[in-house]
Please model this.
Amino acid sequence: MMSLAAADGKLYELQSHTPERGSYFLDDYLEKNNEFIFASVVDPVMLALPAIHEAMGLDGEAKDMANIPLDLEKKPILAAAYERLHPYVAPRADQICEVFNLGGDELFHQLSREKLKDFLLAKFQRLYDHFKGAIQAQLASDSASPMSADRMSDKYKAAVKKRHTIEAASILCDLLPRWACEMILPDLEIKFEELFAVQRRSGPTSSAKRKALATPASKRGKKTPSGKRGAALSPNQSLMDSFFSPGR
Model:
């Protein structure tokens, strides 16, 4: 479950971390509670997207976004969540919607397939840019190995970049419904099923770790091919919230 807090017109995701040992000095005072609270800015549009799509559909009829909860009578939890997000979403809705002024101060919005796709691809690109350093480090390390001739082929380099592309897409799609994922995957030349096969390498892998990596995604709490997600967040979600901040 994602914990959120609002301050200064922004939304923050809160995550806590408690080391097994340790205490800290605050000025001259010894604080025995060693729990850290991390606050990261998140993009409210990402959080409200399921409700907006449920109420408006893609390229559907233009609506006043303030009335979206009225269209979600059969889903009161979704309606209540959107009502709280609306003040944060409305100023940024033009990133995913066509906006129409039909006179007066009232604005009508139409969820745009083209704008939404560009919006999601921009999110992906920010994630992928984060992985560029890892790609370059891996290729540099491989070039120095005795098997560098085999490992530095164009085919091998392409495989490394593809793996990091899938990792970035997997992190993004952990926060998206399946229909939104499938909007951008063709542009990335990735199949939906590939998102569950990604394995992150961090040196020699033990037999126990290989067995854990081989466990089906549905049993690891990650998004499954049905488009549903388990209760647990994926391992990299603790790193990803900053990439969903309003900046693009």
Q: What stands out?
A: Residues 113-143 form the longest helix (31 residues).
